[in-house]
Amino acid sequence: MNNNEKAIDVLQELNQFVNDRIEGYEHAAKLTKDPAHQSYYKDLVNQSRQFSSEINSTLSSIGGSTEKGTTAKGKIYRGWMDVKNTVTGRDEESLVKSNIYGEEWAQKAYNDALEHKAELPPQVVQMVEKQKQSSLATCERLRQMENAAD
After folding, report:
1. Structural domain tally of the chain?
2. 66: containing domain
3. What pLDDT sits at residue 86?
4. Residues contacting residue 85 through CB under 8 Å, at least 6 positions apart
5. 89-92 — which CB contacts under 8 Å span 24+ positions?
6. CB 3.0–4.6 Å: which of 6, 22, 41, 143 could bond 29 by disulfide?
């Protein structure tokens, strides 16, 4: 497998997680009763769409096909969230906790991608690291929102 093939592989997988992130925050924006949270989740949807766009244009530039799908695990998780919200009554704290879980999962996806750093073109590594930093900042903000909900 040459470096472009490895980069394509890593980016397509990463983009499935980013697409999960889009769907997850769209879902959260619909479920929340807090207007400030809703606005933040919508910002995160836009940020995630930007991430996906960056990944897809990089994929195109190195000869890969773009990735529009989500992970099977993400679909299962969102289904579980629906059931849990029906049972627990959609309280803000559990919604924020779910988003923290999703963001921690995104961190793992970014870390997995960066494990192949040596095999990836420098611009790919830079993009992945930049997105990972944004995801870390989101995680921090969500933890603050969770503490405020306590």
Report:
1. 1
2. 3-149
3. 58
4. 31, 94, 95
5. 90/31, 90/33, 92/32, 92/33, 92/34, 92/37, 92/149
6. 41
